[in-house]
Amino acid sequence: NFITQITHRISFTFSIGYRHQQTTAKRVEEVEFDGPCMKTEVPGPRSKILAQQLEAIQSVVQVNFFCDYEESKGNYLVDVDGNRMLDVYTQIASIPIGGYSILYDPELFLGTFVNRPALGMMPPEQFSEKLVNGLMAVAPKGFSRVQTMACGSCSNENAYKAIFIWYRVRGQQFLSLVFSFFFQVPGCPDLTLLSFMGGFHGRTLGCLATTHTKAIQKLDVPSFDWPIAPFPQLRYPLGQFERENAQEEARCLEEVEDLIVKWNQKGRHVAGVVIEPIQAEGGDNHASFDFYRKLRGITKKHGCAFLVDEVQTGGGSTGKFWAHEHWGLDDPADIVSFSKKMLTGGYYQKNSFQPDKPFRIFNTWLGDHTKNLLLTEVIKVIKTENLLDQAKRSGKVILEGLYNLQDKYPHLLSRARGIGTFCAIDVKDEDTRNNLILKARNKGVVLGGCGTQSIRFRPALVFTEHHAHLFLDIFNDAIAELK
Predict the structure, then answer these.
(1) What pTM does this model have?
(2) Residue boundaries of the structural domains of the chain
């Protein structure tokens, strides 16, 4: 086993009246299964009964099946019908180092995580120390400040606000509190953010204005009229289409600059540009590192803030802790947002993006301090076990296997791509893709779709070469049945 144990060194103190109690989380041993074990189709009978019960009080349209997290271990997810599946999706890329039973441990949650401090107003005594040992220990190059939040959407939403505030303060614009109450300039300036087709940055109101993946996500919801630039549509294999791809990226960069100039000229200034290092929900769309380097140059030229959304790509799955590190820039971004594998949410920011007045970036919780404590231990495991290198090795096996499969089934599969274990492949159409995901699931592998016809692979960092070969064997069997 790559990881056989993890020790939670978290001590949490809480008070009830005059009583004082201290609880320390227990040591949890992890033992991996030797492979998938399927007993029923998925969802099975028990999952269907639970879905009927839940439907009385909540929508179950999005529910795939119900899980038994106490029985789930390491890289394996077990459902309530006893089906044991190799998990290559990890709760939409949210589990960093496996170990479902660790994350679900009842004593840990009921005994330790009793209180949730209002971090914005009354943080615990060791809050700064924990941030230094946790989030700041893996801060992207050039960042010395971090703003904690709860999730990816609220991280980006507040990062947008920080950009607009920065843009106004930097330009020494007149701030009118009275006009802002009535949504009028100059109190509420007509500033904009530029985003990209195929980008996904969240489902809250501001984030939806920059999300361009599925129409249903935005249907019936009013939005902001902000500029949208094309994202490069690369042709694969990359080595055969170098000239065409370079032209495509140049076209998109030219359009970005044209949009910034046009929107500035009509008085709706582009305060910032937001982009993912890899467009995940939109279909695992990649661009060259040179594209991002040139895009960063454009934002500097026109005085736009550059927000890199690392909600899905951050945390090590690409073989570097932050995907934008692959670009090789000394000054890659002004703000970097995160969540998912980071357990908590938030964004790193340059000093100049710290709001000039209190309560401008604020909510009750500003994240979850207990998640910061857990993250500290996760980071120790990642470093101790060299899991970033493991992601590179496992990713190489996955990608080579996907190349072989698309050569074997060229009428079904194409465009295998990825960095580290952050991999994807296209299926010939959406229906076939969805059927393939179901067939793989019933054989014991949990996968996820993205875009219109892609399958994405998001294993945990403890996913080894053994697990990669096991996944590829089962995936091959599912494809053969589909054929």
Answers:
(1) 0.85
(2) 1-115, 127-382
